[in-house]
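Re: that chain you flagged

S.,

Sorry for the slow reply, it's been a week of failed gels. I finally had a moment to sit down with the sequence you sent. For the record, here it is as I used it:
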Amino acid sequence: MNKRGHVSNGVLLALGLAVVVSPAPELGTLEWAVELLPPVVLGALLPDIDTEFGRHRKTLHNLPVLGLFVAYPILFDNLHFVWVGIATHYILDIVGSKRGIALFYPYEQEYGLPIGVAVSSDRAGLVTTIISVAEVALLGVLHFFVVDLTTAGLRPAVYELLPEAAAQFVQVAEAGPI
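Prediction finished late last night. Pasting the structure tokens below so you have them in one place:
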């Protein structure tokens, strides 16, 4: 995607995420939107800095970079939600464009889906909007069922599933090969 696509994706995602974490139409939703817009949009633009140095869609378009920005709020209590913009940038480049990205750089293989459109396509804006809506829905599921995005705490249902999943894993492992 081009810069316009990544900016609009970041804006749509920040606004959608604000509604997800504060669904009632109240001042809190607006506060979340104001808080989320800068880090999500900046995160959505950050990977394309590699157009000026390094190799585009490789140097800053990979899982180690995303991992670094996921760890930042945990380790330093700053750069919250920048990782959301970076992750959605990757999704947009993998799903929405023809080329893909080098997720495991320095291994240079680029990964993408064959459903993307050219950056210059008239449908690029529509594809960006569809992907943005899907990302908001995915973050909504994540927020309501797995981890509270406002506190980074796991939901109680996840704690209940962990022992059950571990028991099933042990049962399968003990059964041996099929």
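What I noticed first: The radius of gyration is 18 Å.

Talk soon,
D.
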